[in-house]
Amino acid sequence: MAADESDLALLHDPRLAALATSTWPAWLWSVDGSRILWANAIGAVLFGTADTAECAARRFDVKDAAAAQIIRLAATLPSIGAVRLERLRGFGSGFGRALTCACSRFVLPSGGNAILVAATEPAGPALPLSERVRRLFGDDMQPVAAFTPDGSLVHATSAARAQLGESPSLPALDLAAAAAAALAAGSASGSIRSGEARLDAALTRLGDNADRVILLTLPPRPQNAAGAASGSRKNAPPMAATAPAQPSPGGEPAAERRHPLRFVWQMDADGHFALGSDELIEILGPGIVAAVGRRWSEIAAELNLDPDNQVARALASHETWSGIVTMWPVDEGRDRLPVELSGLPVFDRARAFRGYRGFGVCRDIARINQLLRARRERPMGFMPAPDSPAPLPSAAETPSMPQGTPAPEPPPVEVAAKAERPALSIAPVSANVVPFR
User: Fold this and answer.
1) Rounded Cα–Cα distance for residues 148 and 207 (Å)
2) CATH number assigned to the domain with residue range 261-419, chosen from the 4 options 3.40.50.2300, 3.30.450.20, 3.40.50.620, 3.50.50.60
3) Which CATH number, 3.90.660.10, 3.40.20.10, 3.40.50.20, 3.30.450.20, labels domain 139-217?
4) Cα gap 93→267, rounded to integer Å
5) Which of 178, 237, 314, 409 is the most exposed place for a label (fewest CB within 10 A)?
6) Which of 88, 81, 106, 99 is nearest to 31 (CA)?
7) Could you check whether 139-217 and 261-419 share the same CATH topology?
8) Is the dihedral of CA 34, 40, 41, 43 positive or negative?
9) Quick one: three-class SS letters along the chain?
10) What is the pLDDT of residues 188-240, one digit of tens each?
11) Distance (Å, whole) CA 355 – CA 270
12) How confident is the model at residue 385, as a pLDDT?
């Protein structure tokens, strides 16, 4: 990943900080296996990318060997903090070879979940420390620099060099004491002189033993009018940062979805189906709202999702399955959207079946964008045109309701109801199913 603020926040976690400069690969995966949120340099190279930023930009199909194993881990790993050794294939360790990795759950700074995978044996090329650090941060606009424990420069981004000069060292920057504190405690703070100004500096210890470096992070330099035009998006003024979200003169949003829509679903042992995607619910319409929370057999029969009973047979097997395409109705049956489902069985400690957790993906990006445009152009109310079904309130307009709250009754169909927007609730499922957040 590029060294923007969120990635630097990730490196504040001791586990990632220790793995950042390692000669053994490490990755932080999204729970749906679709992308690598963060990787160290060796991990990026093993997936055929030049650096961590390019690695983070890559997307994976659920049928990819590595992604499929991440999906399995997301459903079976124990609680946060517990580590389990796994032999994983498809992680760039050579044809047919499995790589032994320590796998664990990881809580992101935003509160979401991820899967941390760290090799416990050598794999990938032998890169010198300077190259590992360079591939970790590249030449991003964020002013960061890495130094050896004795204070010598290892790598600095161009934004950092503009503030530090061409040949900086920690002693010359009067940061020797702060660097010693960072080596001992993991992090420290200090300040440096840049021109006539004094800048706050954060120091973080990365790596372990011979791979240790001290990461120096400086505040971004304020941009003038000329610099703002060529600066990165994350350093742009607030109006420029939000401009893509504004509609174009023709009324069509300037930014649209470019990747398949992925979501999670779950099912309890009795077959009650819960869908974890407000966006998909918005796209499909109110018919799906009424269906979610009921048994899959009832939903599939009513909406004709599984005419060949492929999903039903897969669910009855109590085994892992993937790649089953179901046709979901849009606006109560007027159109159909192909959605590919994959499921992983859930068992308790006594190996009793507790239901399924799974993932879904809709790859018809053009159709998704078309439906989203239609939703934006047509206000979400309960009084549609006579020949069209009632659209669903957007996720931003939907009040948060605690699990178990019954769905409210819709308003009477009369003129006074045009100004009303009903509260949306998903029918409750069994208490045995843990809701996705």
Assistant:
1) 11
2) 3.30.450.20
3) 3.30.450.20
4) 35
5) 409
6) 106
7) yes
8) negative
9) CCCCHHHHHHCCCHHHHHHCCCCCCEEEEECCCCCEEEECHHHHHHCCCCCHHHHHHCCCCCCCHHHHHHHHHHHHCCCCCCEEEEEECCCCCCCCCCEEEEEEEEECCCCCEEEEEEECCCCCCCCCHHHHHHHHHCCCCCCEEEECCCCEEEEECHHHHHHHCCCCECCCCCCHHHHHHHHHHCEEEEEEEECCEEEEEEEEEECCHHHCEEEEECCCCCCCHHHHHHCCHHHCCHHHHHHHHCECCCCCECCCCCCCEEEEEEEECCCEEEEECHHHHHHHCHHHHHHCCCEHHHHHHHHCCCCCCHHHHHHHHCCCEEEEEEEEEECCCCEEEEEEEEEEEEECCCCCEEEEEEEEEECCHHHHHHHHHHHHHCCCCCCCCCCCCCCCCCCCCCCCCCCCCCCCCCCCCCHHHHHCCCCCCCCCCCCCCCCCC
10) 888 887 767 778 888 999 998 889 999 998 887 654 433 433 443 334 333 33
11) 7
12) 37
Placement of tokens 């239609």 in the chain? 374
Domain boundaries in the chain? 5-119, 139-217, 261-419
pLDDT in tens, 334-378: 678 888 888 878 887 778 888 888 878 888 888 888 887 777 665
Instruction: Tell me yes or no: is domain 5-119 CATH 1.10.260.40.
Output: no
Percent of the residues in the chain that have a pLDDT greater than 70, as a whole number = 70
Rg of the chain in Å (alpha carbons)? 25
Q: 329 CB contacts (<8 Å, ≥6 apart)?
A: 284, 285, 287, 288, 303, 304, 335, 336, 337
Q: Which residues of 275-287 are buried (b: 16+ CB within 10 A; e: fewer)?
A: bbbbebbbbbbbb
Compute how many other C-beta atoms are within 10 angstroms of the C-beta atom of residue 61: 13
Q: Output the pLDDT for position 290.
A: 63
Tokens 């007027």, residue?
334
Taking the chain, what is the end-to-end CA distance rounded to the nearest angstrom? 25
Give the Å distances, CA to CA, from 158 to 139, 244, 323, 334, 421. Answer: 6, 27, 46, 55, 52
User: Tokens at residue 110, please?
Assistant: 């935003």
